[in-house]
């Protein structure tokens, strides 16, 4: 007689056997036990039924974190140690002649324009770090030209 097998090629009884084994493991893992008592022999006491009580372990309560607001308030621009901030103005100072406005932060970036000491510029973006310098993206209000300049040549401008 040929043994019946599933389409996967295994014997038909393999699935139920695995189910029984896993069920036994689960019972053992949760500390459950099944008492099996032998049947009463001739002249012995009648079998008694045992009641098995399953008591789940208490789960400690978890704290739910406070919900975070979907919209956070926009902080007011805070000045850097040099006193510069986005939306403010800076005056070119200490170059000896002119400050280079560059295409990107960094000494190797292309020079787009030079501005003389004393020029007042609007601060658009920053600060960024490159080549051991702090850089700000600035705009020259006289012609709208924009570029990055090193902070060490800028001082905060007093309100007009």
Word description of this protein:
With 160 residues, this protein is mainly beta. It has a domain at 89-156: Roll (SH3 type barrels), CATH 2.30.30. The protein has 1 helix and 7 strands. The protein has one helix at residues 14-29; strands spanning 89-92, 98-102, 111-116, 120-130, 133-139, 146-150, 154-156. A 5-stranded antiparallel sheet has the order 6-5-4-1-7, with no helix packed on it. Strands 2-3 form a two-stranded antiparallel sheet. Strand 4 and strand 5 form a beta hairpin. The N and C termini lie far apart (104 Å). The relative contact order is 0.13. The model has no long low-confidence stretch (mean pLDDT 77).
Give the secondary structure arrangement, pairings included.
Elements: H1 14-29, E1 89-92, E2 98-102, E3 111-116, E4 120-130, E5 133-139, E6 146-150, E7 154-156
Antiparallel strand pairs: 1-4, 1-7, 2-3, 4-5, 5-6
